[in-house]
Structures are given as C-alpha cells and as structure tokens.
Amino acid sequence: VSEPARRVLVAEDDQDVRDLVVVTLTRAGLQVLVAADGVEALGIALEQAPDLAVLDVSMPRMDGLEVTRRIRGDERARGMPVLFLTASVSEEDARRGIAAGATVVMAKPFVPAELVGRVRALLAGNPEGGGDDAPGAAGP
Amino acid sequence: VSSGLTRRALIGSAVLAVLIGTMIGVLLASISAQQAAAERARRSQEVIAAANDLEKLVVDMETGVRGFVITGAESFLQPYRSAARDFPLQADRLEQMVSADADQEARARTIARRVESYLDDYAAPLVLRVRSDPAAARGVVSTNEGRRRINAIRSGFDRLTDAETAQARARADDASSAATRSKILGWSFLAATILLIALFALYLIRRIAAPLTHVAGAAEAVAAGDLMVRVPTDGPGEVGELGRTFNAMTASLAEARDELEGQNAELEHQQAEVEQQNVEMEHQQVELERALEELASQKDQVDAYARFGDRIVADLTFEERAATVLGELADLADAEVGALYVVTGEGGYEDPALVSVRGVEPEAIPSRVIPGRGLDGRAFAEGRVIVTDRDRSDLRIVAFGVPVAPRHELHAPLTVGPRVVGVITLARVGDRPFSGMERELIGHLAGQAAVALVNAIALRLARRQAGITAAMIDSTPDGVRLTSPDGRTLIANRAMQRLADEVGVPMGAEDVAAFAERLEDPAAYRAEADAIIADPEREGIFEYTVADLRRTFQRYTAPVRDADGEQIGRVWLVRDVSAERDAERMKDEFVALVSHELRTPLTSIMGYLDLVLSEEGATLTEEQRRFLGVVSRNSQRLLRLVGDLLFLARVDAGRLSLEAEEVDLGALAADCVEAARPMAEEREVELTMTREAVPPLNVDRARLAQLLDNLVSNALKFTPAGGSANVDVRGQNGRALISVSDTGMGIAEADIERLFDRFYRTSNAARRAIPGTGLGLAIARAIAEAHGGDITVRSVEGEGTTFEVALPFPRRQRTS
Questions:
Q1: Looking at this predicted complex, what is its ipTM?
Q2: How do strand B540-546 and strand B551-561 relate by DSSP bridges?
Q3: What is the pTM of this model?
C-alpha cells in the first residue's frame, strides 16, 4: 500500500542532534522538513502545514514554547500535533511545554526507536501511545 | 403585748361599771314600784271620798223629796233639784275613777242605774203627784218606798267604798313592802359595790403597782450603785417585759461599769508607767547630754572622715584613687612609709597586688601579698588591724641620703562588708608607736577607702567590658542593634549605622512604614513588624529585598533578658545576603546550563550509538560491538551523573517537588527487586524479598523507586559473588519500614558518619575500585526526608550492611 509520506517538521538548533532526528525519521519512512531555529520553524509550520512538528525547546531567535503558542494561535496550523524535545527535563519544564500547547514532551537523550514510536502514534492521532515513558521522564 | 395591760384595765372597769349600773337600775325600778303603789293608794282615798259625796247627794235628794211631799214647801225641792242636776256628772266622774277596776266600775254603774231609776220611777212622778194630789203623794211616802230605794242605793255605795277601802289597804301594804325591798336592795348593792371596788384595787395593787414598786425600788438601788439588783419578771405582759428589760439594762449597765472599771485600772497602770518613763527619760537625757559632749569631742575625727571621704572620691581612675588613699592615710597616721595592696582581679590573680607606694621604691618591697603570710598577709587573711614594733628590718628607706629602717608598722585590711579586698601597710621611722586611737581611725578609714577602690575597679571593669563589647560587635559585618522594650535603639554597632545610612534600614519604629514601601513585599514586612509588636517572645529570621537597591537582607530578632529572666529589650541582626542569593541564583542557572549543555552532546552520542547498534548491528564485528557497548555504558553513566547532580541542585534550592499518589510499597519494592534481578544474576548474588502487608503510602512513586534502586544496586555492588541481599517491607510504630540488607563487605566505623555526604566514597569502595559517584546515598536520604521519613544504616565490616528507610503513614503529619 503506497500512501503519500507523512510530513514532519523537525526544528533543532544543534546540527548533530538535528541530523540524528532527521535520519531516524527518514529511515522510518517519513518526509522531514528541517528548521534550524524557531522563526524558521514557525514559517514552515504555517506555510507548509506539516502533519507534525518535532521542536527543540531552547532555540535561537524564538524558543519552542513560543513557536507552539503561535502555532496554536494560527488557524492554518492550530490542530497540528507538537512533540517537544528538551534537554532540561524537570516536571516544571514539562508542565510549561504542555501549557504552551505541546502534545507530548520527550527528554533528551532519547532512544531513536522510541521517538519513532511516539511520532507514529501522534500521526495516528493517539498522543498517549507509541512509547512506554510518561512525559518528562529522565533516563535511568 | 403592749395593749394587754390596757385591755385588762378596760375589761375590769367595764365589768365593774356594768355591775354597778345594773344594781342602780334595779334600785330605781324598786323605788318606782313603791311610788306607783303609793299613788294607787291615794287614788283609792279619792274614790272613797267621791263615793261619799255622791251618797250624800242621793240622801239629800230623798230628804228633799220627802220634805216637799210632806210639807209641800217648794223650798224642800231645791236640794233635790241641784242633786238631780249634779248627779250624772258626779256619777260619770266616779265611774271614770274606777274604770281601771272592772268590779268597781260595775258597782259604780249599778249605783248610777239605781239612782236614775229612783229619780225617774219614784222621785219625779212623786213630785208631780204632790202638785196634783198631795194626799196620794203623802200615802206613797208613807209606804217608805223612797226610803227603801235609797237604802238599796246606799248599800251599793257601802259595797263600793268597802271594796275600795280594801283595795287601798292592800295597795298601802304593797307600797310598804316595795319600800322595804328597795331599802334591802340599796344596802346590798352598796355592799357589793364596795366589795367589787375593793377587789379591783387589790388586783391593781398585786399585779401592777407592786411590780412597779419593785422596779422603782430596784431603780433607786441602781441609782445608788447596786447593779446586782434584779426584779421578778413574772408579771403580765408589759410589766413582765418591763422587768426583763430592766434586768437586761441592769446587766448591761453592770457590764459597762465593769469595763469602765477595767479601763480605769488600765489608765491608772499607764499613768504609773508614764511616770516611770518620765523618770527613765530624765536618766536618758542626762546620758544624752553626756553623749553629746562625747560627740562634740569626736567631731574633729568625723570631720577627718568626711574630708578623707571627699578626697578619695575626687579622682575617678583607679590608680589616682589608690595614690590618694595611701597619701591621705599616711598623712593622717604621720607615717613616712606606706604601701597599698588591692585585689584587682587582673591577670587572673586573687591575691592583693601592689598598686601604690609612698616613701619607698616599689622594687624594694614585694609586688604581691600572700594571704596569711607576713603581717600584711595576716591582716588581709584575718581581716583585722595589726600593729607591731620592729627592732630590726631589712627594709631601708633613704632619709637625707642615709638609709634608715622603719620602727613602727600598722597593717590595716581593706574590707567591704564581709569581703577583704586589700591591705594597707603604714610605717614610721621615728620612735612613736601607733596609738589605739590611731589604729581605730586608720581601720575605719581603710574600710571607707576599700569601698571607693572597689567602685573604681568595678567602673574600670565595666568600661573595659563596654570597650570589649563595642569592639566585638563592631567587628562583625552584620548590623547589630539592641532596642528597649518600647522600641528605642539602645546600642547599634558600626555596621548597623552603615546599614541605616546607606540602605535606610530602620533604627526605630518611626522609620518602618517608609522603609516598607521600598521593599519588594511591603505587606510581608509590615505583617512581620506587627507580629513582633504583638508577641514580645517572637524570635526568628525574616528576609526582605530592597527593591530600589536590588539588595536582599536577612534579619534575625529575639528578645533579650537580664540575669533574672526579665525582658530588657530586643536584639536585631541584619545581614546583607545579596551575594549569597546571587550566588544561589547563579548556581541554579549554572546547573541548568550544564545539565542542558551536557545532555545535548549526549543525545547525539547515545542516539547514533543506538542507531548503529540496533540497525547496523549485523555489520559489526564482535569486537566493535563490545567497544561500542563500553561507549554506551559510560554514556549512560554520564547521563545518570548529570541527572543526579541536577536532582541534588533542586534539593538544595528547595525546589524538589513531589508528585504524591497512593502507592503500594510492597509492590513497588517487588518491581525494584525484579528490575535488579539481571544485575544480581550477573554478579552471582542471591536477591530475595520478604514482605508484610502495609497500608498504602502517599508518596512520589518515581522518587521512591529511585531511592530503592540506589539501595538495591549498592547492596549488589558491595556483595561479593556467592553472597545474598534481601529487601524487606513491614510496618512498625506507625511507620513503614523498608530494609535492604546484604552479606557484603560492610562499612568501616569511620565511614558511617559521612556515608550520606555527597561524593563521599567509603574506603572499601575506593580500595576495590567499585564504580560510583558517591551521590546515591545522598539522594536516597534527600528523598526519604522529603517524604517526612529518614534513613539509617547498621553495618559490621566483613559481615554485611542493612539500610533502613522509615516512612510515615499518610494520616501522620507530612513535611513534603
């Protein structure tokens, strides 16, 4: 069954991490749109209407929280699922992300297979599934 | 009761009056009856008289008629006619007079009827016949018809008068007996009345007059002074009452008199005493005069005291005062040489030290007095003046360039109350001993000097203490301030002055309101100020930030008490903690930054490793796979370290937030045991679990799991292969107990104290190169304490270790 590849926006300022996410998602058969900062990410999110946004929280020019708020405030992208990646994981950060409109928050570092699972679940309209970690859980 | 006597008198009088009245009434009635009887007798006489008149009239009529008939002379008719004319009237009158007696009235009427019959049937026709036939008339007369008729009439009259006479006699008898009866009654009544009055008088005398006489006599006796007299009290009503009252009055009079007599005796006694005292006072006056004379003689001595007292307190410093004391006393005693030793307490010595000399070099005499040794030492120890004459002395003083020895010495103790505080030694070179009077004088003045010297020492001590205190509180960079209970500043150190000048920290209640306005949270500051005013016992730390200066201050305040526990004020410490708060903020930021900056590269490392190992694993050689495994394991370690550091930073910042939920502790522990099983198997340690059912706890599941993981992995790490580890869960004393025990190498005694410190590694761990950061137990303790619990350890080196975590059950107070 060949259906059009789902398009995922990946916004991450650290190039190595960005590449890791891109490789992981591309290998999972997804079409990836790439942004290196928040402003760029917001532009792509609003102009190209991807199916999902994977956002780093701390980015230059505009952070992930602000990007999410603007996505939620714009009717073109209002319903887009947003997955947060954050390196400074604490309950407080997770709460702030959810408050800004994130659908799921994932801690860095992440296990690539888990990221794929989360993304697939979100694309299937099921934010809770796809991973065995609750938002904000740090590694062991 | 008061009306009793009156009532009795009234009743007695009334009875007497009624009796006498009745007697007089009966007497009057008797007299009336006698009068009535006399009246009736008189009436009978009148009736008899009237009947006789009427009879005579009838006789006259017959006589007249007969005469006329016989003679025919008209003159004889005259009596007949007047009698016939008067008769009816007279007969009526008689009839009226006897109308009270029916028999007499009937007789009177018979008489009247016969007379009428005589006139109508005999006399009148006879008279007419004379005129017509005188002879016939005479014949008629000769028949004595008239005379017969008249005699019958006259016999009627006789019967009437006889009856009337009998009646009159009977009535006279009646009247006479009535008069007799009246007389008897009168005499009887008179006798009865006299008897009654006599009885009444007797009663009055017996029951009223006699007791009154008693009372009067007793009153006279009382007036004469006999207060023991008593009267009978058995009289009726008021009289008895009068007797009782009189007796009571007499008794109370007697009592008052006794008292008066007692007082009188007392007064006499006092008067005697006063006289005695007067005598004594006279004696005393004599003595007083003698004493005054003595006083006058002592006045010079007193003046000397006074001058001495004035001079020794003129100087304020101890040294000046000591020199003055010695100089004055030496002058008074005419002593050329002198030394003053005082217990100053300096240098920790309790013995008197030399503080002043006169006429001798200080080096030539001892610098201290040893109590009990030498004359000065004895004067000090025994507290009395000692005088001595010396034949020989090693001490030499220079006079006119020639060394001479003192001849006479006086050692006087300086005493303040029971305490000896020093000794003064005076000596004369000349041959004049110290007199008893001089000894006494110097002894007294030494006491005075002692007080002045002790005061000077105390003042010096106080000044030094004040200087030390000021220097000490000035040496701290914190502001220190002491306020009185009403809020005035008593002491403020230099730092406090600076804080007041530069920051505007309040120095009094009047500055508080303005200062509060400059703070980030004025309301909290004002509330705290009010709380302190409301609660004088309040003690504690309060922190505020001055908004315009962006500086933060910590203020500690507490009540200050004197030795008796009475609150004498409040101390305030103000510390600038801006730098500390900045450092904490920077540390937080730093930790967050480091955490972020470390995780980002780790993300790439671990992510790509995972990609390689999971997706391209097939293309790797066994050795490559092993090498990459090492990289992966160390990345994990690094990541955990970063996590632990971040966790402890949060604990330090007080930002460790717990997400409490109801947790089955046994199940949670079992999960942890299962998660650690691969590691146990790898290390060949037998891992077991024992549990009792405990009520659910209200805890943060992830944190508690982290705590247990740390303890279990420690147990496995420090237990050699072949050993065992056990996790036990049970309830005890209202708390849940989790014990993690092992049969490992144990912990050295020396390590236990610091076991929960950060980064602390035990000697065993270091020696055997067991990997670890030294953060695991610190985190375990932080988690246990955040839940209101604690963690303890028992260990025997070479035998094993047991960690025990105690957590409160939910109903108990929580401090999370």
A1: 0.83
A2: antiparallel
A3: 0.45
